[in-house]
Amino acid sequence: MSSGGGILRQPMSVWATAFAAVVAFMGIGLVDPILPSIAQGLKATPSQVSLLFTSYFLVTAVAMLLTGWVSSRIGGKRTLLAGLTLVIVFAALSGTSTSVAELVGFRAGWGLGNALFVATALAVIVGAASGGGSAAIILYEAALGLGISAGPLAGALLGDWNWRAPFFGTATLMALGFVLIATLLKTTPKPPVRTKLSAPIRALAHGGLSTTAFTALFYNFAFFTVLAFTPFILHMTAYGIGAVFFGWGVCVALASVFAAPPLQRRLGSVNVLHLALGLLAVLQVGIAVSGHAGIIVFTILSGIPIGLNNTVFTESAMEVSDAPRPVASAGYNFVRWMGGALAPFIATKLGEELGAPVPYAVGALCCLIGMGILYGRRHHLGALTRVDDLAVQEAATVG
Questions:
Q1: pLDDT tens figures, 220-239
Q2: The domain that contains 358 carries what CATH number?
Q3: Does residue 23 sit within a domain?
Q4: pLDDT 10s digits, 78-93
Q5: Which pTM value belongs to this model?
Q6: Is 2 a member of any domain?
């Protein structure tokens, strides 16, 4: 729930971190337009190539449990720089791969760096941004949306030249992000209490946080079914796939920044999640039953509920429990990124063996399961209702 006002009036350190976050999130969609080219270049099947996502997000998920432990010992800035260094190294190594197994392994190392950077970037932006935590989260989600939308374009433009080029391009941009953060971000103080390794898992004992996290796991399965499998059924060039996912990413960014906050104020966070999950289920069914033109349209439109979910889930994870935000974020992201790790391989394998509509039917079912979890465990989400009520009162006062 944004306070609106000064979201764009931020210190340079916030913009430096946000820029690096954009590039980090570009790495998610970067490979989308070149998945068919990678499969052809490395003589791999679609399900083998989908392991690029699986290794990336599996390591990202597990490494989330370490981020608080690391940052509480070496500080936020050093953790950001360590994560960026790993991304630079493994993105460059990805471009040198001679087999799909090598590429999958390098993407795993990339995932480790991404976890250290992304989890810490959210905490740094929240801590340094003006306008409060909600404004910072919207700024972070805007970076996510911009990165996801720019990634396919960059992947298409560079991948049309050579499928290895997007990886080297990402490494170069991340090196620029490293320089910006190293020079513009002040050294962040270490927290007074060091985070224990077990803290994120213990935080998930809270009913509200576990409800949010496991709902997000099923949502992410549906999300990454669209992202990882759709390039193989579009039957388009790298430019065509890049254009489709650019449109999708623009919808993600616009919904995250401009649609989610007013809908939260009007309907409440839990109701927005129900709405977005239901809409995503409908659009997945649309992809499953449509011809080529319909697949393109429904894929692009799926960015709207995905953008809504991204913002509302992130805010909900931060607000629903009394755990420190970095700890809550780590526990939540550990669970939810498991959906991103499982979906690409399972969806692609289902598509190969049972037909292209099946992964989207499973994705729609996952959305319905997520809605069922939210409804069945709604008594754990009272904190979100209180936050929503407070936001409505503040908006009425300002108005």
A1: 999 999 999 999 999 998 88
A2: 1.20.1250.20
A3: yes
A4: 999 999 999 999 999 9
A5: 0.87
A6: no
Q: Reduce the secondary structure of the chain to three states and give it as a string.
A: CCCCCCCCCCCHHHHHHHHHHHHHHHHHHCCCCCHHHHHHHCCCCHHHHHHHHHHHHHHHHHHHHHHHHHHHHHCHHHHHHHHHHHHHHHHHHHCCCCCHHHHHHHHHHHHHHHHHHHHHHHHHHHHHCCCHHHHHHHHHHHHHHHHHHHHHHHHHHHHCCCCCHHHHHHHHHHHHHHHHHHHHCCCCCCCCCCCCCCHHHHHCCCHHHHHHHHHHHHHHHHHHHHHHHHHHHHCCCHHHHHHHHHHHHHHHHHHHHHHHHHHHHHHCHHHHHHHHHHHHHHHHHHHHHCCHHHHHHHHHHCHHHHHHHHHHHHHHHHHCCCCCHHHHHHHHHHHHHHHHHHHHHHHHHHHHHHCCHHHHHHHHHHHHHHHHHHHHCHHHCHHHHHHHHHHHHHHHHHC
Domain count, the chain: 1
Q: With respect to residue 3, please indicate whether it lies within any of the assigned structural domains.
A: no
